[in-house]
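job 3f2a | input accepted
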Amino acid sequence: MLVSRDYAVTPTKLLEVLTDQAFLDARGAKFGAKSPSTVQRDADAIVVVTPRQLALDQVPSAFRGFVGSGELVQTDTWSVGAGDPTGVWTTDVGGAPVKVGGTHRITATDAGCEYAVETTIKASIPFIGGAIESQVGGYLKALIGNEQEFAADWIASHA
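job 3f2a | predicted structure (159 res):
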């Protein structure tokens, strides 16, 4: 699944926003961060670690037994340097039998940039794995779209 959005800023500026502590704190407050994100920077990468709380009331009752407490940790690792920013993201879902992750890509456009998030979901549960993947996919598509909208609003209000 791919979710993308265009922004009227450069790829570098969007990456600055997406890895800014104030932005991450505000995004976390709105979208279920369990505690503040941490940001580590070096010459080759920026790593953002965000503890999250899954909204258990949005998990169908038939699947709640697989998500435990709903606590998870998302790690975004951005490659920096030459070219447009790219990255990978992974989610530690504790003991849940689901793997969730994907890629980030910010590409320059004539009007600014496009931010694309690709998601890969794999549930290793016989018979119902496909239903879980579909449910998680729908949840993530909405969350990523809402977070991209939040970033656009943040850029507009902090320009």
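job 3f2a | Helices lie at 11-18, 21-31, 129-157.
job 3f2a | closed
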